[in-house]
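Re: the pair you flagged

First of the two:
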Amino acid sequence: MELLTQNDLPLQKPTAVAIGLFDGIHAGHKALIDEIDAHKELMSVVYTFDTKPSHAAYKNIYTVKEKIDIFECMGVEALYMQPFTEEFSKLTKEEFLQRLVNDFCARHITVGFDFRFGKNAEGDAAFLRANADRYGYTVSIIPEVGCEEGKVSSTLIRAHIERGEMEQTARLLDRFYFIDGRIEKGKKLGSAIGFPTANMSTEKLLPRYGVYATIVQIDGKCYPAVTNVGVKPTVTDEGIPNIETFIFDFSGDVYDEKMRVNFVSFIRGEKAFANVEELSAEIARNADTAREMLSDLSVYKKYLLC
């Protein structure tokens, strides 16, 4: 997949462009991607907006790098992340449309039914339809994608993640919720009680603090695992959240390796134990639960990102 910048514009190949924020890249967003992919004579382009850094009040569902990986696995040919500058925010709806046609050589445009664009969000699907003949493109408006709880949305997905409801999250995303990172050096507390862990930290959205059955991907291989997300109240009072993963039947030095942790199912919430012995016994029970659940990884393959 080609990562486009302003220096690549104007494009010379005619394109089918899907436009949106793509926060969760969920089932509703997949409908947009599938629609532009159907136009085989055109280069498929996703036009989205740069992800703002996570902060205390708002954590991103995916990092920029994770989004790139997802779009690539979905078969998107080119991706453009629009910097949301003051200049861009002042573009009128007409100027934004002209940018699509002239700079992106758009011959087909796909948006969601509620997409708004241009200064003061004055542009909408009706405006795109009304100007299609004038500018020489076709347009598809993707209707609301529903689920048992109503509309599939990043807000709904975020709520499931924060409650630790990973099965519901996977159904809405069409993949397991995952966190990518590099394995960091820990304090080897897990090794001391018989459960060596691979540790990661992240600024993105964490699921509910607790223990999960997970599938870990390292160097293209999948491993069943059990993962703790939280602040480890039994062994530290630092209050700093991290992700600790005990990978089953795995050996080797993986420090500084890239790792993806796919969250399959919630096992229990975070709790403080009276002592390390109680903690060790509970980890053993949690590991047994996860092992049984993940005894056949092939049944989960469709929920793993390529």
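Second of the two:
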Amino acid sequence: MRTVYLNGYFVEEDKANISIFDRGFLFADAIYEVTAVIDAKFIDFKGHMARLHRSLNELGLQSPCSDDEILDIHRALVERNNLTEGLVYMQITRGAADRDFIFPPKDTPPTIVMFTQEKKLVSPPVLQRGMKIATIEDLRWARRDIKTVQLLYPSMAKMAAREKGADDAWFIEDGFITEGTSNNAFIITQDGTLVTRHLSNSILHGITRDSVLKTTNDLNITVEERAFTVEEVKSAAEAFLTSASQPIVPVVEIDGCVIGTGEPGLKTMQLREAYLKVAKETSI
């Protein structure tokens, strides 16, 4: 049984109890971060902390812990759960208060939860075959740049994609791909240009996305940050997605149309190898 962290205490997962009045439960009034763990070390941890503070500030939330304390808790969870590869999930809510749309007083103690999950990140089973994607209309709220726990529609989209025989979904808005249900979307054009949507309120500012783009500098890959269409994906040489839990996974099909050769692309795999090398070297 896992050990989890809740409001200052390490407890067994079946003993972790949260108030029924917690605003994360009642209003999805909470933000979260997921940090990858490889070889018992954390990938892109500083980036995740920077985004955490951005999300907190956008919602007027306070962090109950310093960054150093959060890192210590992460490390303790990895040690207590003997985790060598997987994820650490962290969630901070506005705390517990009687149900009201109006925010509670600012001195209401926030709720902080952290737990580990085992997951194959370096060699996931899907890596060899690549992922199949279905497109879904993007009906989420307009502040997708804030990493909130409002994840019902992405969950519905994932289920709709599964019903279509796909592995996941990419969202479409005004004819353009925004992002995936829990990942950023990339294509590599026939001339070798890497294209991914520009940062705005329309997409989450992916930490893995940012690290991958930095990796392209060493590989002399031309990058364009702009919106792209489904037709561009279908005519691309390669495609892939990124997230902390899916560090560069090739995409080989969209809406039943084969992308490139229908196999994980060479440049995608080269970029993945280069990214993982840097990620491991800079892990903490």
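The chain has two domains: 3-118, 125-282.

-B.
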